[in-house]
Amino acid sequence: MKNKKKNYKFLSESKQLLDIMINSLYSNKDIFFRELISNSADAIEKLHFLSISNAKIYENDSKTKIQITTSKINKSITISDNGIGMTEKEVIENLGTIAKSGTKSFLKSIKKISEENNKLIGKFGVGFYSSFIVAKKVLVRTRTANVPFNEGIMWESEGKGEFTVNNCTKKNRGTSITLYLKEKELDFLENQKIKKIVNKYTDHISIPIEIQNYDKKSKTYSWKKINTAKSLWTLKKSEISDKDYKKFYKKLTNDIHEPILWIHNHVEGKLEYINLLYIPSKAPWDIWNKENKSGLKLYIKKVFIMEEIKQFLPNYLRFVKGIIDTHDLPLNISREILQENKIIKKLKKSITKRILKNLQNLEKKNPKKYLEFWNEFGSVFKEGPAEDIENKEIISSLLRFSSISTKKNNNKISLINYIDNMLEKQEKIFYITSDSYDSAYDNPHLELFKKKGIDVLILTDRIDEWMMNYLTEFKNKKFQSVSINDSSINRLTEENEKNKKNINNNDCLQFIKKIKKILGEKVKDVRLTYRLTETPAIVLTDSNEMSTQMEKLFLAAGQNVNPIKYILAINPNHKLIEKIKSIKDEKLFKNWIDLLLEQTLLAERGSLENPSNFIKLMNNLYLTN
After folding, report:
1. Cα dist from 153 to 144, 147, 554, 606, whole Å
2. Residue 341 near residue 115 (C-beta atoms within 8 A)
3. Which residues span the domain enclosing 330?
4. Fewer CB within 10 Å, N side or C side of the chain?
5. Residue 384, domain member (yes or no)
6. Degrees (nearest 5) of the Cα angle 558, 564, 566?
7. pLDDT in tens, 570-611
8. For residue 241, what are the contacts with CB-CB under 8 A and spacing of at least 6?
9. H/E/C letters for each residue in 57-120?
10. Taking a C-beta distance cutoff of 8 angstroms, is the pair 78, 168 a contact?
11. Rounded CA gap, 599 and 584, in Å?
12. What pLDDT was estimated at residue 554?
């Protein structure tokens, strides 16, 4: 056949464009294998599709495969497939994408990496040109199915501004791409390294990938399959046993423990994707590190793209492990593009809802198993109400709390349980935050609630106080801290005739006035309270003040905050208050009031600014008596 060699020049910006592609779009050199093997797989899939209507397209060779050979003499790698192959026109169009797109406007847009030009990044030509990351020259030989052997096409370029297209003879249908490596990239000639890269990026492609091995003893060549060619997540659920799911999880995560549950979905429609997600049974030691690596891996059409992707899940679900395999993203997508991609946002929304729905099912069908999940990941899950407003209702229903009624810290109730057990006229969901369950349970703030049989949620996680800033309402019931001065709590007090008499009693009012004068700016106010049954006094936070636990969080984080001005609430029916009230000695009276305030602050905060002064004050009063 007559030689038809043709020379083509890239546009003037092509070298600049190549530099951007090689240095900006690809974060590591291994990526060229993923791109080229993916292109080969696409060519084979296209052949399979066309064969449905035309079986002759197989040319009596229906056993499709991708093969890799190396030559240390030529310092080259060849990746071959027996897919559909390309015509001359297709070679120029597909491998000339860089020439067609190499305009100043494209250069300008690709630097911005905006949502609109993601499609350009994903074109075949861009992926193919990743070859020049490692190659000084690339040679492509291809023949489309059902054309004569001598009508093959050869494409050749050094990636420096031009390429040539020529005729060649090619016996086998399909495409072979030969990369002549740069001197510093010769380690890619080692079969072991190639196997490792293939296993990382393309192990689950359903088409066999073979590498040529040479036996020095027999001096013969043989082919060895190096991928599993089986993507478990692409199989139907009915084809996968629980044992298979668990085995795959351990291989995927290197976790010695079995997962609590897995979520496997094939989704078709506006979005086409597969998710195989696992919830581990044990939290990692660094679960509280929000910069912790994500356990998700991204595949596109069974081709591995990247791991440790955070964009598919909200941060409060960062403990989820697994795989997302989508058909809707370009192979060349980068982490930067993931941040703003509209498809990613839709996938994130869909996948998040699936996880929450499965947690709901676990909660209903296996409460014991759900409690295992909660004990491991509940503290992280509590970030949800602040982070995910759209799913706030379902997240809130999945929260678990200790309470007065649970008696023990390891027993938990849901907000739905709490509401079901509320008293008939109870207006709000009451809670208390504290450093521990025991200190909260014995807190004087709970005396009234215990007496009236009103349950109170006990929150002891370090995140709880922050969470309650966002968890303000559930099922039309507002949350109310019991340590805050609030009218709904005041209405619960038993204001009988005796209490009314105390309120109106001039002696009692003078007593309060006297305390205010002694304490001055140390407190915001001094008031009577009937919410106490066993304690002489407590301090309350005003509704516009920061809570004690929130102040502790800020101080622990090294932030300066204005000291809380508490309201000192006095129980007029307590014997100690009656005793103090009767004291005539002003100095002794002052010491008792100072001690009373110190006691209430100790009960509220768990610590004092000056413990030595407190002990001294107590000892003096002991001696006085």
Report:
1. 9, 11, 70, 82
2. yes
3. 232-375
4. C
5. no
6. 155
7. 998 899 998 998 888 899 999 999 989 988 888 888 788 788
8. none
9. HHCCCCCCCEEEEEECCCCEEEEEECCCCCCHHHHHHHHCHHHHHCCHHHHHHHHHCCCCCHHH
10. no
11. 22
12. 76
CATH number at residue 525: 1.20.120.790
Nearest to 373 by CA among 280, 289, 256: 280
Task: Please choose, from the candidates 342, 339, 349, 305, the residue with its C-alpha nearest in 3D space to the C-alpha of residue 324.
Answer: 305
Domain boundary among 490, 513, 530: 490
Q: What percent of the chain has pLDDT over 70?
A: 86
**Structure-block tokens of residue 525:** 């106010």
Residues 238 and 219 reside in one and the same domain: no
Does residue 381 belong to any structural domain of this protein?
A: no
Compute CA 89 distance to the chain's CA centroid, rounded to the nearest angstrom.
45
Instruction: Give the total number of structural domains in the chain.
Output: 4
Q: Starting at the edge strand that comes first in sequence, how are the strands of the sheet with 429-433 ordered?
A: 402-403, 457-459, 429-433, 477-481, 473-474
Helix, strand, coil content of the chain in percent (nearest 5): 45, 20, 35
Q: How many helices (H) and strands (E) does the chain have?
A: 25, 22
SS (HEC) of 538-565:
EEEECCCCCCHHHHHHHHHCCCCCCCCC
Between 367-381 and 342-365, two packed helices, what is the crossing angle to 10 degrees?
Answer: 140
Neighbours of 445 (CB within 10 A): 25
Reported pTM: 0.71
For 302-334, how does the pLDDT look when each residue is reduced to its tens digit (9 = 90+)? Answer: 877 888 788 889 999 999 999 999 988 877 666
Q: Is residue 383 part of a domain?
A: no
Cross-sheet strand order for the sheet of 295-300: 261-267, 273-279, 321-326, 295-300, 303-307
